Amino acid sequence: MFSRPTSSSMAFPKKKLQGLVAATITPMTEDGEINFSVIGQYVDYLVKEQGVKNIFVNGTTGEGLSLSISERRQVAEEWVTKGKDKLDQVIIHVGALSLKESQELAQHAAEIGADGIAVIAPFFLKPWTKDILINFLKEVAAAAPALPFYYYHIPALTGVKIRAEELLDGILDKIPTFQGLKFSDTDLLDFGQCVDQNRQQQFAFLFGVDEQLLSALVMGATGAVGSTYNYLGKKTNQMLEAFERKDFSLALNYQFCIQRFINFVVKLGFGVSQTKAIMTLVSGISMGPPRLPLQKASREFTDSAEAKLKSLDFLSFTDLKDGNLEAGS
């Protein structure tokens, strides 16, 4: 699925990142400390129950920017350790406001055996031009010269509006380890031009808006990174398989079904907190509350989401694990 030849610019030993990539949640205890004890169980759940074998750690869903540098290092280590011989690829998000911190995290990711690193644009003192942003990314990538490097494009959160199409133009000349893009934006014109204008480079084009994935596949997405693949990975994989078979009517039915759920929870107020509650509900693994300033999802939200999942036949009553609704209480 999504197979493409490796870029000739770098001969990385790892296979190309493709297919579904779960944006992992960082499980926490009720007092806000990271609950490392459930990550091994989390790995097994993703692989066995959702058919997802690639992960994106310490990103938006993982509350990466709400963790200390020490915590981010520990979380990365735990995922790499627990995912060994079970996961195909572990990509660590190492973006930070401080260049030095980002470089430290990149170097650490290489030391622990991660399969790649990703970086968002700095979002307080922002880079306002393509060249300034690339200079920042270049310095981070250089700290881990043996790892594939991905740019994490999420302008709605960073406020950095530099188009991804513009950024990719000539990027290999500056960042030879560049392997692809996590595109978390609804601008399909920008995404389409990223693909169209870089066909010879064979980059990984990883789409990050779960409810629009089918549209991105038509445009040439080679994979997808998202939070819903933690609990809707199996259903999304069915959509990918239908698309690969060129059964576009079935693929569209799957996409519409997924959209029905996402549209429902968006109207209730959907974010990281609610994702943690849904994951707890579906997997039976306690994800705990989010870290401030985020607030715990309400029990009303969790009950509504549960009813919608059942009505869409995403869950049967026996799929739900008793006694694991505390994240939404």
Description:
With 329 residues, this protein is of the alpha/beta class. Strands 1-2-3-4-5-6-7-8 form an 8-stranded parallel beta barrel, surrounded by 6 helices. The protein has helices spanning 39-50, 69-83, 99-112, 130-141, 155-158, 164-168, 171-174, 188-196, 213-219, 229-244, 248-268, 272-283, 299-311, and strands at residues 19-23, 54-57, 89-93, 116-120, 149-153, 178-183, 204-207, 223-226. It starts with 18 loop residues before the first strand and ends in an 18-residue tail after the last helix. The protein contains 13 helices and 8 strands. The radius of gyration is 19 Å and the shape is globular.
Quick take:
By secondary structure, the chain is α/β, with parallel strands linked by helices. The chain has helices spanning 39-50, 69-83, 99-112, 130-141, 155-158, 164-168, 171-174, 188-196, 213-219, 229-244, 248-268, 272-283, 299-311; strands at 19-23, 54-57, 89-93, 116-120, 149-153, 178-183, 204-207, 223-226.
List the secondary-structure elements in sequence, H or E: EHEHEHEHEHHHEHEHEHHHH
Structural class: alpha/beta
Strand line-up of the largest beta sheet:
1-2-3-4-5-6-7-8
Q: Which spans of ≥5 residues are poorly predicted at pLDDT below 50? A: 1-9, 317-329
Rounded to the nearest angstrom, the distance between the terminal CA atoms is: 40 Å
Strand content: 5-15%
Q: Total number of β-strand segments? A: 8
* Discrete helix count: 13
Overall 3D shape = globular
Rg (C-alpha, Å) = 19 Å
Quick check: average pLDDT?
Answer: 92
Helix percent band? 40-55%
Query: Main beta sheet: strand number and arrangement?
Result: 8 strands, parallel, barrel
